[in-house]
What we know:
Layout: H1 5-32, H2 43-53, E1 60-63, E2 71-73, E3 78-81, H3 83-86, H4 91-108, H5 112-141, H6 144-181, H7 187-221
Helix pairs in contact: 1-7, 2-4, 4-6, 4-7, 5-6, 6-7
Amino acid sequence: MYIDPLYIAFALPGLILAMLATFYVKSTFARYSKVRPRSGMTGAQAAYEMLRRSGIDSVRIERAGGFLSDHYDPTAKVLRLSPDVYDKSSLSAIGVACHEAGHALQDAQSYYWLGLRSSLVPAATIGSNLSYLVFFLGLFVGSMGLVKLGILMFAMAVLFTIVTLPVEWNASARAKQAMVEYGIVSQQEGTAAGDVLNAAFMTYVAATISAILTLLYYLMRAGLLGNRRD
C-alpha cells in the first residue's frame, strides 16, 4: 500500500505533539488526583458551588462514563462529569469540574467565541469525516472542483479547532479565579489545580497544530501551495 511521504512529513509532527500532550495531561491529572483539597469537595460539589455562587441554577450536573470525558452541553444545559471527576475529592477533579462550569458561565453570559464554536459544529463534523474522501476522489478523477471542495470542508474543521482555543483558555481562566474566590480551594491549591487545566489546554494546541499541518498537506498535494501537483 502506497503511503505519500509528503503526508508523513506533515502528519508526523502533529502526531508526536498529540502523544506528548496526552501524556502530559494524563500524568498531571494522575499526580494531582492524589492530592485532597482542604475543603474536601468532590468535583461535582465544586462545580455546583461555582455555578451557585455565579448565580446559575439552570444547569444540571450529571455523572458520565469514560475517562476525562467531561464536557458541558450548551443545548441541554447539562454539565457531564466523568467518575474520576464527579465522585472524587482531589485537586484534579476540582480543576476539571470548575473548568466545565466555566463553559456554563460562558453560555450564560453569551460568550462570543463559545457561540461561534457551537455554530461551527455541523460544518466541522462533516468536514472532519468526509473531506478526506472528497479530496482524494477529486485527485483520482482529476476534478479540481472536488479537490477544492474537500479542502474547503477540512478548512472548516481547522477553523473549529482554532476557535476552540480561546473558548478553552477562557473557561480555564474563569475556573482558576472562581476556585479561589469562592473558597473551593486555597490560593496554593488553586495553582496546583490550574496546572491540570494548563496541561489539558496543550491537547487543544496540539490538535490545532495537527489540523493546520494536514490542511497544508492538502494544499501542497493539490498543487495550490508550493507548485506541487503529482
